[in-house]
Automatic annotation (TrEMBL):
CoA binds at G61. This is Fluoroacetyl-CoA thioesterase. GO terms for molecular function: hydrolase activity. Keywords: Hydrolase. Its EC number is 3.1.2.29. It comes from the Bacteria. The gene is flK. Substrate binds at G61, R113. It is an enzyme of class 3 (hydrolase).
Amino acid sequence: MAIMRGLRGTADLRVGEEDTALALGSGDVPVLATPRVLALAEAATVAATAGQLDEGSTTVGTEVALSHLAASAVGAGVRAEAGLRLVDGKRLVFDVTVAQTGGGELARGTVERVVVDRARFTAAARS
């Protein structure tokens, strides 16, 4: 299948205690952790390509630039949105935003992924 610019994906989260900086060790405050924001943004990129790849293919993250702009409390709803801006061979560049449901922007940036053969990639992983 051909991957085309403009693909979009979303990922949603209700912030739980396990998603906080305190729980993940990335800080000492009980608010949505930057690593969890990044994981949500990456999930939106994966959702954008779902059903668009050749059988046996997947994408893997290769580069991220993310600005975490505001805090979000436990219990808040959060949505990440990804839009595919650039297709350069097997390289995919997504613009991502993360916002609180009904509220303001929490983060924005870019996520780059590369299309790989799932079996070969997994076999080459070092233990």
